[in-house]
Amino acid sequence: MTRAEIDTPHGLARAELHCAPEGGRAALLLGHGAGGGIGAPDLVAATRGATAAGVHVALVEQPYRVAGRRAPAPAGQLDTAWLAVADHLSALWFADLPLVFGGRSSGARVACRTAQEGQAVAVVCLAFPVHPPGKPDKTRQPELDAVPVPTLVVQGESDPFGRPVEAHHRDVVLMPGDHSLKKELPRISRTVEEWLDRILRPLD
Q1: For residue 92, what pLDDT is reported?
Q2: H or E, element range at 198
Q3: Burial of residue 191 (number of CB atoms within 10 Å: 0-12, 13-18, 19+)
Q4: What InterPro entries would the database entry show (predicted)?
Q5: Which DSSP state fits 167?
Q6: How many domains does the structure of the chain reveal?
Q7: Is the pTM for the entire model greater than 0.85?
Q8: Average pLDDT taken over every residue of the chain
Q9: Cα distance from N-terminal residue to C-terminal residue, the chain
């Protein structure tokens, strides 16, 4: 594991790099939730699954978290910082590798919003917050619908943030539990590993 610090237009970001044991067929960037960090159990499980599929992983810590703030930055700042991190890592660490964007909750939203501009070949969403709890009218489903590349959504069956719908290029896998996705972590690893292997095979 290697740690990197990256300057962005909105402050210093950090990335924790986990290399696949046998080379790398792609690189997966994973972002954290609004109030959480990169040590979230589902992010760790997804990292394990991705590296097993031969994919390098960068767990990305947004500048507001590096600066010690709990409240997330505005969406535009999150997206700009994320793309700056992706550019840096692509140039210095993951040269010539296809990029997969991903994250949990708020980090999943960032991955979806930036997938096209960042030229991601796929997106992995853990606990995508379709709407605030109890407010289904305030839907974020359009952020998912706008993603033009294959997308995996791993969602808790009883997640109060709602449940995304499947689409022709979007797989939704339901897991026991809520928004934390702390149950059946080995299954999350397997799901991410198998999905990435299938999606990346045509690019190998």
Answers
A1: 92
A2: helix 185-200
A3: buried
A4: AB_hydrolase_fold, KANL3/Tex30_Abhydrolase, NSL3/Tex30
A5: B
A6: 1
A7: yes
A8: 96
A9: 24
CB distance 148 to 170 below 8 Å: no
Which contiguous run of DSSP H or E holds residue 158? Answer: none
Amino acid in position 104: R
DSSP H helical ranges for 93-184: 106-114, 141-145
Q: Which CATH number covers residue 96?
A: 3.40.50.1820
Q: What is the pLDDT of residue 16?
A: 97
Q: For residue 92, give its domain range.
A: 2-203
Encoding tokens for residue 138? 């305030």
Task: List CB contacts of 192: < 8 A, sequence separation 6 or more.
Answer: 45, 46, 49, 50, 53, 124, 152, 154
- List, for residues 120-146, the tens digit of each pLDDT value: 999 999 999 999 999 999 999 999 999
Separation of alpha carbons 8 and 93, rounded Å: 17
Distances (CA, A) of 45 to 9, 33, 57, 91, 128: 30, 15, 12, 26, 16
Copy the structure tokens of residue 132: 């605030």
Distances, alpha carbon 202 to alpha carbons 94, 103, 152, 196, 197, in Å: 19, 23, 17, 11, 9
Name residue 15's amino acid: A
